[in-house]
Amino acid sequence: MDARAFVALILLFGLGALIIALFVRRQKHPLMNRLNMLSDQKSEEEGKNDQSSMLREAKKGKGLFSRIGDYHRLKLLRAGGSTELRPLVTRIFVFGLVGMAIGGPVVGQIGLLLGFLTAAMIPYLLLTIKFKRRMAKMEYDLPTALQFIVNALRAGHALNSAMAIVGSEGPVGCREDFAQLNDSLRLGVPLIQAFEQMLHRTPSVDLQFMATAMLIQRETGGNLTEILDRLNSVVMERKRMRGHVKALTGQARMGGYVVGALPFFLTAGMFVMNPKYLEPMFGTQLGHYLLGGAVFMQFVGALVMKKIINIKM
Prior knowledge:
It is a single chain. The protein is mainly alpha-helical. The protein has three domains: about 65-120, no CATH class; about 135-235, Receptor-associated Protein; about 250-313. The protein has helices at about 5-25, 30-45, 50-60, 65-80, 85-105, 110-120, 120-155, 160-170, 170-185, 190-200, 205-220, 225-250, 250-275, 280-285, 285-310.
């Protein structure tokens, strides 16, 4: 088989795997579907010409660039920062130029493109890291926040007042989300839409549990204190299970990090010790094709390994 055809086949296989991974990742959680169903029922009762339906219609009519801008604003919002796009675009171009300055002299013309694309992904990686840290901190403090709400309800406070207490005096990981939720309720936003905004900003399964339990109790009735107390026990058990799973998969994750970083460190070491050994790889067109295919396969392999060790709970 020709080398170009072989590399093209590998790239096609990797692209298909990436599309399948993105499709699986976009599937919604059943609790989110339940919350959306309750929201649609509430919207039908209040009428089709309310503000939420107008916003949905406006969102459907947006163009490609507007959707790309909304996607990046959502990533910035979930990372806990400002939704201004200019600093993010500036960082992307600065990192890309630095990558071109490093990759161009080393690899050549193709190094300019590879260096720009590789370095331009660093701001996205930093956003993902900030988002995961924020989610981990929120999920760690959520049982304490639920206990705050339960104690406030037992002391005679209303639900809105109990959530306001969490927003002002609760744990740091949940304080900002509950403060914004309380601000929305004080401005007259219905509870279900306030929870939708909260989950849009912080897509946590534990928060979806809490929102679904409160909304169902509001529709059907029942002892909210007892419901939230049991929910707190469930969230605590999920927290314990996440720690257990993280401990069990620690060796696999460390092995994935070592295997993923080994080719880059090995290439750097060989380039320092014997630069002429890698000249066919960096100085010929076939070497450029093989290098691009290897980098892409490394990226796809990292995604597959991450998918294997990332156990959803």
